[in-house]
Amino acid sequence: MEVKVINKSKHELPAYQSISAAGLDLRANLDEPMILRPMQRTLVPTGLFMELPLGFEAQIRPRSGLAFKYGVTVLNSPGTIDSDYRGEIKILLVNLSDESFTIENGERVAQMVIAKHEQISWKSVKVLEDSERSAGGFGSTGKG
């Protein structure tokens, strides 16, 4: 699938790192490093603008290495970019650690996965069909 893109960043376009990769790494596009203090959140610019086809979304997800090693993650994970959005892609990061984290220009700060989606129409009813699970939730099918 081709996606129209404007790259105003100082970096090459994101690319898949392997033939089976689902996500593209997004890089910080900064004039100077950003310091993210403990429990602070910030929007990190990427310099990328795109036009997704109708019926698709971009999901912004954390990078596992940043989350595990430094406690830095995407706050609204996964973030959704709708196909009609044309603004700059920015990453909402939060530092959940007890130490400051410096975001450098070009640092990989998140990954983006493109996904197909559907829109629903509601059908109002009085009763829902029963299922094996029924109304059980939040741990009703086991420990976790």
TrEMBL record:
Alphabetical list of InterPro entries matching this protein: dUTPase, dUTPase-like, dUTPase-like_sf, dUTPase_trimeric
dUTPase-like domain location: 11-142
Superkingdom: Bacteria
Cofactor: Mg(2+)
KW Phosphoprotein (keyword) present: no
Key word Transmembrane helix present: no
Positions contributing to substrate binding: 63-65, 76, 80-82
Keyword terms, alphabetized: Hydrolase, Magnesium, Metal-binding, Nucleotide metabolism
Family per record: Belongs to the dUTPase family.
Listed name of the protein: Deoxyuridine 5'-triphosphate nucleotidohydrolase
The organism of origin for this protein: Marivirga lumbricoides
